Amino acid sequence: MINPLASSNLTRRTQKVIIPINLTAAMSTPTPHPRYKLIFTVPHPSLAACKAAVYAVGAGTYPGGKYSRVCFEVPGVGEFVPGEGAVPNIGSVGALERVEEMRVEILCVGRDVMVKAVEALKR
Fold this sequence. Notes:
- The chain has 123 residues and is α+β, with helices and mostly antiparallel strands.
- It has two helices and five strands.
- The two termini are 19 Å apart.
């Protein structure tokens, strides 16, 4: 089972957090499905591919289909030090690495869409 409040490394290139949210008052189209906010950070060169992958499984689509490919993006700088045994995609073991990244937030309507979106990011 996915802990909706936990953050975990998918790869050194993306991270995800899934937050259950209640948007009933904010959305004009009601839905019986739970809503989740998928949050991940990704280096700029991989941004388009990551968004395309989650959009392809239905993330970023509001109930009723009136809006699709909806997200919120915020630029930032991520930093990390790969430890012993790590095989980093970026940087080297024991050295501080700073990477310009984008934080992306995308609505997922329904648990199945949320799970598929997380799986798409893992690929």
